[in-house]
Amino acid sequence: MACVGGKCMLTSQVRRLREAGMDAMDAGNLEQAETLLRQSVTLAENEAGLDVVTANASYRLALTLHKAGRHDEAAEEFEKALALARGRAGCGSKLYQTILGHFAAALPARATPDLACAVGE
């Protein structure tokens, strides 16, 4: 992939923050995980055309918020990640299905496929 306008470097920074956040979550440091993952989401959101990267970061932030017992915030991040994944990769994409599967496992009462997916858009 050719770098255009520094997007490769930006994507790499987002990925590093996301991975560090997941490492912190795995180590049980949810506060640090949330901080790193929020930075990852914010960095990705500030650049157009990084929907898949933003979806991945939001999805991982949702997992951390769920683990911290902050279910409403987690649901919001899951929903944002699903919308981004659907818009960029579609309802049948591996990314969309992975996010929806984890959302359903974490918060089954809140996790529903996007209406657009249900009607085949």
Automatic annotation (TrEMBL):
Keywords carried by this UniProt record: TPR repeat
TPR repeat extents: 55-88
InterPro entries: TPR-like_helical_dom_sf, TPR_rpt
The keyword Repressor belongs to this UniProt entry's keyword annotation: no
The keyword Iron-sulfur appears for this protein: no
Name under which the protein is recorded: Uncharacterized protein
Organism: Solidesulfovibrio magneticus (strain ATCC 700980 / DSM 13731 / RS-1) (Desulfovibrio magneticus)
